[in-house]
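Q: what sequence does this backbone want?
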């Protein structure tokens, strides 16, 4: 798959936060903390697999281990049901729709924030009806089938 330079930089910065003594290494057991800080929510078996992959003997690991884990984690951040539930928070009318502009604001201000270019691409991709609303169940199907 391969990580972008931006992703590598972000992961390296996060790694440094956990490298308390600044020796370029963290304990293998801290891998879970680092990937959780980067927004993933691995299960215990997934954590064990990550650790085995980068530190078979369980010793300290360097930043390369985090880059390896993040490049091949295979963890899906959230299920379709979780995404639907989160959109319902913004559905004041309970009709299964939210304003496209509201959805853009959510993507730009929560979680891993979109920049302006990404937000514009989002707006072009959204299935917006004639009144400016997005059926978020339809949108969720689209993003999970991509």
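A:
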């Amino acid at each position: 798959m391969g990580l972008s330079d931006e992703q590598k930089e972000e992961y390296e910065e996060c790694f440094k936060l956990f490298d308390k003594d600044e020796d370029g290494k963290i304990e293998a057991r801290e891998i879970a903390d680092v990937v959780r800080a980067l927004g993933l929510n691995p299960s215990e078996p997934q954590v064990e697999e990550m650790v085995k992959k980068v530190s078979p003997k369980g010793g300290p690991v360097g930043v390369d281990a985090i880059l390896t884990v993040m490049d091949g984690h295979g963890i899906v951040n959230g299920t379709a049901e979780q995404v639907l539930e989160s959109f319902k928070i913004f559905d004041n009318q309970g009709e299964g729709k939210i304003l496209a502009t509201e959805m853009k604001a959510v993507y730009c201000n929560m979680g891993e924030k979109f920049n302006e270019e990404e937000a514009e691409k989002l707006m072009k991709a959204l299935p917006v009806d004639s009144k400016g609303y997005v059926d978020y169940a339809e949108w969720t199907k689209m993003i999970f089938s991509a």
